[in-house]
Write a structure and sequence with these properties.
With 141 residues, this protein is of the alpha+beta class. It contains 6 helices and 4 strands. It has a 4-stranded mixed beta sheet, sandwiched between helices. The N and C termini lie far apart (54 Å).
């Protein structure tokens, strides 16, 4: 074992098998957050599709309005106010979050190039004022 491996292995509070199990249960779509937003949009009578097969796989789209909406979680997308990088394996997490942010910029550019209107909403916006944020999303659709 290298010194680096020894250091990083001691930082995590659970073993590799347990960590793998925890991470396998992290959902990438149809999260409670996304379901709540979809329910609210349906109550407002909005027509939309979820997880469309477009560049970047937007969370919500309106083909009619050519609008793509991404619901970015504060952790996975590196919110400057709320993202807390874990103390363990920072050498993994910092580049991982940076790659996610860069991918978002590339996806935004590509979709706009294809004629889509792109909007990204932070998770904390919904937590702070759900109704107002839902109305903003609904206006795009």
């Amino acid at each position: 074992c290298s010194l680096k491996q020894k250091l990083f292995s001691k930082m995590d509070t659970i073993n590799k098998k347990q960590r793998s199990l925890v991470m396998s249960r992290v959902r990438s779509k149809n999260t409670k957050f996304e379901r709540a937003i979809a329910t609210a949009l349906k109550k407002l009578g909005k027509s939309f599709k979820q997880h469309a097969n477009l560049t970047g796989k937007p969370d919500i789209i309106s083909r009619k309005k050519k609008a793509a909406v991404f619901l970015d979680s504060c952790f996975w997308h590196g919110c400057r106010w709320h993202c807390r990088i874990p103390n363990s394996k920072r050498g993994y997490w910092i580049p991982k979050i940076q790659r996610n942010k860069e991918r978002a910029r590339i996806v935004n550019r590509q979709l706009r190039k294809e004629g889509w209107r792109v909007a990204r909403f932070w998770e904390h916006r919904f937590q702070n004022d759900f109704e107002a944020t839902i109305k903003k999303v609904a206006n795009l659709l």
